[in-house]
Amino acid sequence: MSQATLAIRKISGHAGPAPGEGVERDYQVCKLVDTTTCIGCKACEVACLEWNGYTFTDTVFDNSYQTMPQTAWNYWNLIKFNEHEREDSTVTLLMRKDQCMHCADPGCLAACPADGAIVQYTNGIVDFQQENCIGCGYCVSGCPFDIPKFNPATKKMFKCTLCSDRVSEGLEPACIKSCPTGCLHFGSKDDMKDLAETRADQLRENFGFEKAGVYDPAGVGGTGVIYVLHDATNPEAYGGLPKDPHIPWVVRFWKGPAKWIGNLAMLGGILGVTLHYLRYGPKEVHPPKNENGGQP
Amino acid sequence: MSTAQVVSSGRTAGETDGRICRYTLGERVHHWLGAFTYVYCLITGLAFWSPYMFWLAVLVGGGPTARFWHPWFGLAFAFSMFWMFKMWHRDMRTTDADRRWSKVMKQYIENDDQNLPPVGRFNYGQKLFFWLMFYGVILLVISGLGLWFVESIPWSLRWLRYTAVTVHVVAALATIGGFIIHVYMGTAMVRGGFTSIIRGEVTTTWARTHHRLWYEQIMSGTSRKQ
Predict the structure, then answer these.
(1) How far A147 CA lies from chain B's nearest CA (Å)?
(2) Same domain, A81 and A214
(3) Mean pLDDT over each residue of chain A, to the nearest integer
């Protein structure tokens, strides 16, 4: 299999720099999801299962068309259906294809303690390497989109790979190939941004969606999956898409300053007791004074 | 529980001292169960803590194995800690003697021991360490459950995930600080302490030097029976 587009840029839990650190390829790959033309057919859900070799699992009915409440370790691609009341009190169905967002600044990768369990390729794809995963679940805490899921049988984490195996061969992801309305697009980040902005303009000017816009959150450095939304000011309405996602500050602190403070404190403790021994040495025992008896 | 007594009068060759039972077999067993499980959690925890210490996981069977056992060893440590609480919590209460002693702890640290106020079975520092580990393990178990079953914490309560991480890290670092001092004092600084937690016995001179009030209780036969 060609690995040409899968050179690594970032590595989780890695002591020292990654080969390819800081490298920007000519283009970052990007998936564009136009929620305004999604019909909720779930062809992408099926294509995802087929390509990645999973069988269809039990659905969970929750008074909506949604297959299950959230993505699962073996169900990486889920259309989220949300009834939304318009200002004129009519109701519309907002449908958003939920999957890993492939953040430029991935919280899962920042939180991961296992060397090489999460990598970011130079084309921007964030991929879990299950052979290095220890199943700790730190990525769950790091992800601002609640995407990584645990397989209790193998004790490994799973999520959408953006079909890195297909992309490395010059193919588009399976979900893109299956979409009947063309609401899914795949290409370079620049091209997808252009296309998304064009579509948002169209929605604003021709269709009366004054708040239409593109979702490409800067808090995580931009994402490898971007959305066109009818109302970009209220992404939460699309099944809880966070308005301003970023790596939780706790995770940033934990993996940044806390590490150095903690390591220095531990080192200081060891140094401190060593110096104490050199300066003061062991304690003497005092034999009892004779006049006071002492010996039993 | 504290069945301290004079074990022998120590008149055998080379010994000028009698010996006193300081720790019963049960106390020693639980100390070492706690020590072993804590060190396991320390090694694996440090591996998860920093990429520069991830190699430590190799010592105990690799990352996934370490991740699997860490919480179970943590529970075993908590068990031993609660057992130690059961055995020692009466001995670990702060007394007036401790308050007097704690005021001149600097002298103790500098080995200027001649004029220290006498203390009972455990000194104030030992008591602090005990309560640090006791409350530490409570926090570690509660936050550890949050890390263990992180996916069971719903997204709407995700602040609990972040709190669990923070509490686990802070509590672990605090216990590591206590652990470093404890191991140093028990092995290098206070000679006789290490053998006492292995074989259970100390010399009368040792007891008289380090734990005068306890020594006097034993000698006068007024040691508290439980």
Answers:
(1) 10
(2) yes
(3) 91
Reduced to 3 states (helix: H, G, I; strand: E, B; else coil), residue A105 is: coil
A293 belongs to a structural domain: no
Domain that holds residue A211: 4-247
Domain hosting B214: range is 21-219
User: What is the least distance, in Å, from the CA of B33 to any CA of chain A?
Assistant: 23
Considering its fold, how many domains does chain A have in total? Answer: 2
CATH of the domain at B206: 1.20.950.20
Mutation target vs A (from B173, B181, B210, B220; most A CBs, 10 A cutoff)? B173
- Whole-prediction pTM value? 0.88
Which residues on chain B are in Cβ contact (under 8 Å) with A263? 50
B11-18: which pairs have CB atoms within 8 A and are 24 or more residues apart? B16/A295, B17/B203, B17/B204, B17/B205, B17/B206, B18/A295, B18/A296, B18/B203, B18/B204
Asked if B204 and A149 come within 8 Å (Cβ–Cβ), the reply is: no
Give helix then strand counts, H and E, for chain A. 8, 11
Is residue B8 one of the residues assigned to a domain? no
Residue of A nearest to B169 (CA): A254
pLDDT at site B2: 45
Q: How confident is the model at residue A138 (pLDDT cuts 50, 70, 90)?
A: very high
Question: For the segment A52-111, what is each residue's pLDDT rounded down to a tens digit?
Answer: 999 988 899 988 899 999 999 999 999 999 999 988 899 999 999 999 999 999 999 999
Please give the tally of structural domains in chain B: 1
The answer on A266 and A233 residing in a single domain is no
- Mean pLDDT value across residues B100-125: 91
Phi (first) and psi of residue A155, to 5 degrees? 55, 45
